[in-house]
Design goal:
There is one protein chain. By secondary structure, the protein is mainly alpha-helical. It folds into two domains: 63 residues; 206 residues, MetI-like (MetI-like fold), CATH 1.10.3720.10. Helix content is 75%, strand content 0%. It contains 14 helices and no strands.
Length: 284
């Protein structure tokens, strides 16, 4: 019996290791490729023993010639700043609008509230290519093309439905007795939401913002069509490594790794708030 139990545990751990390697292998491969020279990247069979170089990162961050010829801000760094402004602004606006909306749908006596919630979610069902052409025509007519405001508003199609649906489930799991106790003490609806419900729903807000930020950061279509030379996001910056005659694989790999850093840092930073909310919530 003990042997069978140990065998089952071993198989579970082995399967977890297998799936971890399966999902993490592309990231490891891109990381290794970012430290290779071009001749090592295109070598066949693949070279696992090579002399690492930082030239790819140097050219991405400081331009051709590296830091020695650093005279102006490279385009890729500008793309990082643009993505930070667009994704950060989109998540902030979606949080300000989505959290009260989710609370109203969870607690309000609204006729057809679940249909309304499903309508918000349906914005994520439709392919972006269905709405991008009308948005392009509208943006060019009202002056929102190649502007941060226009891209932030466009990214609400990504962030707002995610935040509303994630927060809706969190608000529904909070016992109504807590709100009723606050009402007995004389708290208004807005005070109850701000001082009682939001601290409890902190883990949900953190999770929703992380997911919304990652989806917004990785979006390509909106930046490809609605952004110009001043507001191109980092996903467009990665495409700049593809020229008419070749693909600069080393630069593309280093650009991809750099673009992944902000999302990982935000996830790591907000993870402590998620853990703290799960262990110190008022419900527990």
């Amino acid at each position: 019996m003990s042997f069978l139990k140990n065998t089952k545990i071993f198989s579970i751990y082995l399967s977890q290791i297998f799936f971890f390697i399966f999902f993490i292998f592309p990231i490891i491969w891109i990381l290794i490729m970012s430290f290779k020279e071009f001749r090592d990247i295109i070598a066949y069979p693949p070279r696992f023993i090579f002399k690492p170089t930082l030239d790819n990162y140097s050219e991405i961050l400081f331009g051709p010639g590296g830091i020695a010829n650093f005279h102006r801000l490279p385009d890729y760094v500008k793309y990082l700043f643009n993505s930070a402004i667009i994704s950060g602004g989109a998540v902030l606006l979606a949080t300000v609008l989505g959290v009260p909306a989710a609370y109203a749908l969870a607690r309000g006596n609204i006729r057809g509230r679940m249909h309304i919630a499903f309508t918000f979610l349906s914005f994520r069902f439709a392919p972006e290519l269905m709405v991008i052409l009308p948005m392009f025509l509208i943006y060019t007519q009202i002056g929102l093309y190649d502007t941060y405001i226009g891209l932030i508003l466009a990214h609400q199609l990504i962030c707002l439905p995610l935040i509303i649906w994630i927060m809706l489930s969190f608000f529904q799991d909070i016992p109504t007795a807590i709100e009723e106790a606050a009402r007995v003490d004389g708290a208004s609806v807005f005070l109850t939401l701000r001082a009682v419900i939001l601290p409890i729903a902190g883990p949900g807000i953190a999770s929703a913002t992380i997911i919304a930020f990652i989806f917004s950061w990785n979006n390509l279509i909106f930046g490809l069509v609605l952004a110009g030379s001043d507001t191109r996001p980092v996903t467009m910056g990665i495409l700049q490594t593809m020229t008419f005659d070749q693909i600069k694989w080393g630069l593309m790999a280093s650009a991809a790794m750099i673009s992944a850093v902000p999302g990982m840092l935000i996830a790591i930073y907000l993870q402590k708030y998620i853990t703290r909310g799960l262990t110190m919530g008022a419900v527990k």
